[in-house]
Amino acid sequence: MASRLNPYLSFDGDARQALEFYQEVFGGELDLNTYGDLGGQEGQPDADKIMHGMLETPSGFTLMGADTPPGMEHTPGNNFSVSLSGDDDAELRGYWQKLSAGGSESVPLEKQMWGDVFGMCTDRFGITWMVNISEPQG
Question: CA torsion angle for 9, 10, 14, 15 (degrees, to 10)?
Answer without folding.
Answer: 50
